[in-house]
Specification:
alpha+beta, 2 domains, three-stranded antiparallel beta sheet, Double Stranded RNA Binding Domain, 142 residues, single chain, 13% strand
């Protein structure tokens, strides 16, 4: 489910010659896409979503607050633009995901597991206490 959409004027696109195989086409056509999206100035994004993007993609964000997305997937500019836009939309979708609250069945299961854990903890404490009590009583020769 997409919560936030962005428009083309929210990004800056630049082109370069793409590397890799492709023959003469690689040397002549600028098909590589470098897309920049300024996260800090994205006023239309929720603050929580902006912070999550900044935290999740901190290695891809430059000092100006721009996330840089490159694409050389296809041999056409339009295909690479579409791929870069899809990557950016995927980042926004992941950052805007809010998990649903647990159901009653899940809450009961969690409570049951917590109770079992508490019983195990108390049982191990009791075993350790009994072991220490046995050591104390064994040393007395009264």
């Amino acid at each position: 489910m997409r919560v936030c959409y962005f428009l083309h004027y929210h990004v800056t696109v630049s082109f370069a010659r793409s590397g890799g195989p492709g023959g003469q086409n690689v040397n002549k056509v600028n098909t590589k896409v470098d897309m920049r999206f300024n996260v800090t100035n994205a006023y239309w994004l929720n603050d929580r979503i902006r912070e999550r993007i900044m935290q999740m993609e901190k290695n891809r964000i430059n000092k100006d607050g721009e996330i840089v997305i490159s694409s050389t997937k296809t041999r056409t500019q339009k295909g690479n633009i579409d791929d870069a836009l899809a990557k950016l939309q995927a980042i926004i979708d992941v950052a805007s995901y809010v998990p649903p609250p647990p159901s009653e069945e899940q809450k009961k299961k969690i409570a049951k597991m917590a109770a079992i854990g508490e019983q195990k903890r108390l049982k191990s404490k009791k075993a350790l206490s009994d072991k220490k009590a046995f050591r104390r009583s064994r040393d007395s020769w009264d």
